[in-house]
Amino acid sequence: MQGAMNAVMLHTISGEARSLSPHTLMTKLNTALVPRIESGINVTMVIGLINGVEKTLTLANAGHHAHTLLVRSGTIEPLVSKGMPLGMMAGIEYRQIHFPLQSGDVIVFMTDGIIEAKDGSGREYQETDRLHQVITQFTSNTSAEAMVSALINDATTFGADMTTEEEDDITVVVVKVL
Has residue 71 been placed in a domain? Predict the structure, then answer.
């Protein structure tokens, strides 16, 4: 229920101000969520704005620790931006960071359900090199859809033998820069 409320809030605020920068949008979301969110609950989120003409990515982060990845020429670089989760405290002004892009770059956004998938011994996916192994197998001919499927399948296969009722959402968005 909380996720649905946050999605409606994001849609409403972003629809009112399509020209907002990521950090301004994040600040407005925080202001809207603080009085509405239960104590001890918060929302993590990353907002990215891609400028296809200037080939830049602008990120604002609200406590989302599954950092956006930039894949360029076979190397993987986490695009680290930091900020406090939404709904925790009023008056926070979020910052944004700009990253230059190049044709052929791949940007991977994911939820923490990917990096926190656990195997039977309790080891997290992010503690292994599997994510990097999957990504480095991609070629320029690999479709974004195939990349998403490969990442989700590997993370869920890794965590398949974990017997727990605690499940996390798993979402991956892949953007290929032309």
Answer: no
